Amino acid sequence: QVQLVESGGGLVQAGGSLRLSCAASGLPFSNYVMGWFRQAPGKEREFVAGIAWTGRSAVYGDPVKGRFTISRDNAQNTVVYLQMNSLTPDDTFVYYCAVAVAGRLTNWRDSDGYRNWGQGTQVTVSS
Length: 127
What we know:
Blueprint: E1 3-7, E2 10-13, E3 18-25, E4 32-39, E5 46-52, E6 58-60, E7 68-72, E8 79-84, E9 93-101, E10 116-117, E11 121-126
Parallel strand pairs: 2-11
Antiparallel strand pairs: 1-3, 3-8, 4-5, 4-9, 5-6, 7-8, 9-10, 9-11
């Protein structure tokens, strides 16, 4: 059974940083894309960043380019991090990690392509 567990959310002041973690277990496939999405109540999920299982390919959503960095743990290649810097109140969302089979994902930014999701972690940025 696939499980994705996020951690690292919390409350931070504007301009601050947070690092989110996502630990995946039970993956029945080795070639994956791990993505981070975020969602506000009543809104659609927004793509934040994605990384391939090799750790060599990463894609970012426009609102976070230059501020957020996605990476994979070299020792545990099913653990992915999202380093978030220069946070603003507009970054206040529930953040979710998700996993997709790499060969079947045609658009990294489309949440419909991801097959398993974590429970989400709240990030709140105060002004």
